[in-house]
Amino acid sequence: MLVSATNRAGGYGSGGCESASDGSLSSGAGASGSAAGPPQTHPRAAVAVLCAAGIVVALMQTIIVPLIPQLPDLLHAAPSDTTWALTMTLLAGAVITPIGGRLGDMYGKRRMLLASMGCVAAGSILCALSSGLLPFLIGRGLQGLGFGTIALGISVMRDIVPARHLGSSVGTMSASLGIGGALGLPVSAFIAQNIGWHALFWLCAAAAGMAAVGIALTVPESRGRAGGRFDLLGAVGLAAMLVCLLLPLSKGASWGWASPTTLGVSVTFLIVATAWWRWERRRDTPLIDLGVALDTPVLLTNIASVATGFAFYSMQLMPIQLLMAPAGAPIGLGFDMLMASLVLAPSGILMFVFSHVSAWLTDRAGPRVSLAVGGLVIGLGYVLFLVLLLTGGFTWWIMLIVACLTGAGLGIAYSAMPALIMRAVPVAQTGEANGVNALMRVVGTSTSAAVVGMVLTWSVVQIPVSGGAIVVPDANGYLIASIVSLVACVVAAALAMAIPTPRRLEIEAVDTLGGRDPSSRDDPEGTIGTDETDRAHEIRGEISP
Questions:
Q1: Chain center to CA of 56
Q2: Are 62 and 180 spatial neighbours (Cβ–Cβ below 8 Å)?
Q3: Can you tell me the distance from the alpha carbon of 55 to that of 178, in angstroms, rounded to the nearest whole number?
Q4: For residue 286, which phi and psi values (nearest 5 degrees)?
Q5: Do residues 60 and 121 make contact, with C-beta atoms less than 8 angstroms apart?
């Protein structure tokens, strides 16, 4: 019990990530690495390159969106088959994110970052050369293998960035996901309309190549390495488990939620998950340390990440459909893809700006407060969206405000998640832990795509247009989906505030060893004196493995 309390406080010998009295993070040397601290100057070039690489990876998710209606003609395939262009990338990204984090901890994060950019470049080239479905899907899968870049980049920053800059650097890296996602739609729509769809993928290949060169020139290799052998069987089991989890979420609407295929894959997920869990618990060097993953701060952060990812993707799905629905629809503004994307694009800029606000807030109140505030700001966007649904006062500039609130909230929340994770795990496991946290966001977005997609599909109505009719969601579908997403925001904020602070856990460890009742102390936010803090650090050193 005492060991658990001190581990939750962030203590793993000299490799712990300490929480300063103001809530900021400072990183120690890796458990198996050099005892030297991080550089005393801010490695701005490395941080800039890592953020650029994150934007490149985020673009892989959105460049395909303008092409979706045209893919059956472009690839000479059935519409039901071309939907795999999205699903393949999602599955590959979900599988590689935790596995890539573990490989980075074991063999070097810089090496894995270069491999990630190499996969993105190779996949982009293959897509650019493709005129058929199979090579295009293989290329999209290779692009998905780069999705571990953001989690790896955040872990690298813990190794190379001084404590005074770590919060803002991590926030910027987290915000690269939103920047790439928001800017990807208008850029890809413009290029596809005016140059050609193959040019999109040549551009992605060039961007990935430049990012790889930048990483090779500016990012040093990580000093600390995790020991043990790579758990190959655990990696295969995790891949099978994630595929069986995410595939029904992605394809359930087209397969049918009660179809034998959907139910069979879901049952297979339960069987594989049980077997994988038992295997990982018995391993001395597991692929994912379940003891760390189930530790209260990490577990609550990951569950909050699922809820935040759900709320984030819901706001990606609904506004674009509303903006592009014909003006004659129950709710619609009649914009084309490019104009609708431009209305939503500022949300990515706001995500970047508010990632620095998150770092400022984390320094003063702690990352759990930042995560809670981020969830509430996203929730405020949903409240405004609900008011508009009930009053029917939709205009493009109101939708711009809703998108900006979402972007601001995401910038705050997504920047706080790595801070919570990094102060709760040892340095040698930051890649693995950040990979799992990124995976939880993918689970949240996939669940959102399934739930919101099902609700909006259930509520469609036919609208006559020139040459036929189209189906669009009605107000009831948007209303139900918005209420569910607002609940997700509230859940994320509540879970964030339930995350115990490291300093409080240190106090409990000190009091327990001293024979005192921890509940008699009232210092939840870290105002304990330095003498007691030093004693807590000594205790951690005495009982750490």
A1: 15
A2: yes
A3: 8
A4: -75, 165
A5: no
Rounded distance between C-alpha atoms, residue 61 and residue 94, angstroms: 12
State whether residue 221 is helix, strand or coil: coil
Percentages helix, strand, coil for the chain (3-state, rounded to 5) are 75, 5, 20
Amino acid at 253: A
The DSSP 8-state label assigned to residue 132 in this structure reads S
φ/ψ of residue 289, rounded to 5: -75, 100
Instruction: Read off the pLDDT of each residue in 264-277 and give the average, rounded to a whole number.
Output: 95
- Rounded Cα distance, 38 and 35, in Å: 10
Q: What letter does residue 14 receive in the DSSP assignment?
A: B
Q: Please, what's the b/e burial string for 355-387 (b: 16 or more CB within 10 A of its CB; e: otherwise)?
A: bbbbbebbbeebbbbbbbbbbbbbbbbbbbbbe
Report the distance separating Cα 240 and Cα 243, nearest Å.
5
At residue 8's C-alpha, the angle toward residues 171 and 439, to 5°, is 50
How many other CB atoms sit within 10 Å of the CB of residue 24?
20
State pLDDT tens for residues 457-496. 888 787 777 766 777 888 888 999 999 999 999 999 999 9
Helical ranges in 256-295 per DSSP H:
260-282, 290-293
